[in-house]
Specification:
377 residues, mainly alpha, 3-stranded mixed sheet, 14 helices, 3 strands
């Protein structure tokens, strides 16, 4: 018997450790279920009370095994619901099972309190035993109905759960029949059919738990990877739409305002007013600023000549400023994707604008380095 008790104790502590580390309720429920199975086994198979420490024996003898059955059944139901995702697979059935399970817990607490108050068995406690047995029977019928119905609906984890519990379910039925003196079933497995059923259930469930956790973990990683790829795709599409919009604005400026300025220039030239030096200087400056504005909005050179030339050309705007710029290029820019080039160019623009607006720098040294693994600015 000590081997079985040691197994139950190890299983309880193992599930407690998993619950502390992983923080999943399933292992917390499994810890509660295994612990009360151990308490039931100790109270059911007290072959030699001297085998246990005196304090343990006194504590076990205070709580009747019916209390352990109620608590174990409560956690057993929770394990089933959590392991098979019963709340999402059959929500209506799960809600009914929750009500029954909560009522079972209330009865267990009430029974424990009454047993502490009334230490000896009497007429009241005997009647209460019958009521509790009836409640357990109803809950088991409801639980098994949920299990078989869920398995019939094709829930694969319910099928696994049913397979793991087949011996234990049979042993529970035999135990109830023998307890209620409805029949007498010969115990073929020693030292007890309940112990064998519990051991088989815990071993197989632990294996399936590990497999399920591994599959859930792999599925979660795949989901995160898919979401990451989706975010990258959306970011790329956003950049493309922004650049398309910028290009449309640049084209409209070129075709609209640009043509208007050219028309104004021709009009002034035809009237002879364009010969004025001040007017020519204003038009030259306006034309230069207009071209720079279009270039800043949508630099066509990135697609035509590449990132390096586009960034170098963009510095021509600041030749007349107090800041001296030095730029150096290394590596092959063809390793960069076109979308990434646009991103880098926008970052470069923002950095240069921040330097001009917010720093007192007299000299700016710029290096762009591209290789197979990274881009350094």
């Amino acid at each position: 018997m000590g081997r079985y008790y040691g197994f139950f104790l190890f299983s309880a502590l193992f599930n407690l450790l998993l619950f502390i580390i992983i923080r999943r309720r399933l292992y917390g429920y499994m810890f509660g279920y295994t612990s009360f199975l151990l308490m039931f086994a100790l109270s059911e198979y007290l072959y030699d009370p001297y085998f246990y420490p005196e304090q343990v024996y006194i504590w076990i003898s205070i709580c009747p095994k019916m209390f352990y059955i109620l608590c174990a059944l409560f956690f057993y139901t929770k394990v089933f619901q959590k392991f098979t995702s019963h709340s999402s697979f059959l929500p209506e059935w799960n809600r009914i099972l929750n009500y029954s399970n909560s009522f079972l817990l209330v009865i267990a607490i009430l029974f424990f309190i009454l047993k502490i108050i009334f230490r000896t068995d009497n007429g009241f406690s005997s009647s209460f035993y019958l009521i509790i047995s009836t409640i357990i029977g109803i809950h088991l019928i409801l639980l098994f109905t949920n299990i078989f119905y869920s398995a019939g609906k094709g829930n694969k984890y319910t099928c696994y759960y049913l397979l793991c519990n087949i011996i234990f379910i049979a042993s529970i039925i035999i135990y109830i029949l023998n307890t209620l003196d409805l029949t007498s079933v010969r115990v073929m497995l020693q030292p007890g059919y309940m112990i064998i059923g519990m051991a088989f259930e815990l071993i197989t469930l632990s294996i399936v738990f590990i497999i399920k956790y591994r599959n859930d973990f792999i599925g979660l990683n795949r989901k995160l990877q898919k979401e990451k790829e989706q975010q990258v795709f959306l970011a790329s599409e956003l950049i493309k739409s922004q650049e398309t919009e910028r290009q449309a604005i640049a084209d409209n400026l070129h075709d609209g305002l640009g043509n208007t300025l050219n028309a104004l220039k021709l009009t002034l030239a035809s009237t002879g007013n364009f010969e004025n030096d001040n007017i020519q200087k204003i038009f030259t400056l306006a034309n230069q600023q207009f071209r720079e504005l279009i270039y800043q909005i949508a630099p066509k050179e990135i697609g035509e000549y590449g990132l390096y030339r586009a960034t170098e050309q963009s510095l021509n705007v600041f030749k007349a400023s107090r800041i001296q710029f030095s730029i150096n290029f290394m590596g092959n820019e063809n390793l960069l994707h076109e979308d990434l080039k646009i991103n880098i160019y926008r970052i470069f623009q923002e950095l240069i604008n921040n330097i001009i607006r917010h720093s007192d720098a007299a000299f700016v040294d710029i290096t762009m380095d591209t290789n197979e693994k990274e881009f350094i600015l």
